[in-house]
# Entry
Amino acid sequence: MRHSQLRAFDAVAREGSFARGAHLLNLSPPAVTIQVKSLEEAYGLTLFIRSGGKAILTPDGQALYDRTRRFFIEEEEIQSYLSASSALEKGYLKIAADGPHAALNIIAAFREKCPGIKLTVALGNAETVRQDILAQRADVGITANCPESDRLVIDELSVQSMISLIPKGHRFSSRKELSLPELMCEPLILRERGSNTRRVFEGAIKELSLNYENELELGSREAVREAVAVGLGIGFLFEHEVLGDNRVVAVPLKELASSNRDMVICLKSQLKRRVVESFVSLARTFAELKVT
# Structure
């Protein structure tokens, strides 16, 4: 049984004539006749009674036609769905992000551009986002300082500096800039290992051959900000992550200016999908606007 045979049979049954069925399919009548005859011979059935240019369904033909109509209606619905998805009218996109600051403006713009696409967003640290993309648990990622990979498309969106977050009233809170060596004897509040903030901080510490001992490790930027606010120590965030809080003061770090690169990432194989390509393209537009 071939699709073309069923298509020819269905057209003839709908039109009640081989000639009109052929016209519907934009084929010649002999071609349609051959397709239907091949179907009948393959299964030992008589599907039509030919009479005076008409094609009258037999009981077997009627039973088959009831099924082919359902089949081709479903096929048409599938085609309509795929066409809508191609036009970005329907579909799904899962986004993994290591924080809302770089992601939300792009997500909002994409949602306005493609309101028919259902979006879900999973938040995690930088390594979690990278692994979610590589394992295809998410379609696109917005993260920072992602290592190069032969499997990934990586586009830079923006550059940020790391700042130190100082409790208000601390002796460093009036400073315009701080240096990492000045902070090594202070109680430090750090993000968890695997986070981009921790990775950038540790890289700078190693490069400067510094050591620290008194630390508190917390699993989110919100927790770091709150711990600093209640006086547990000095924390570290990127400049776009610092929200208005009169309990803390953000002081730039000399060694960590422009240390963070926000990126949009996806698998190279996923970029063939229209919805993924559209999101990445929109993110690139945001990056270009920031540059200009």
Notes: DSSP finds ten helices and twelve strands in the chain. The first strand starts at residue 48 and ends at 51. The chain has a mean pLDDT of 91. Residues 32 and 100 are 59 Å apart (CA to CA).
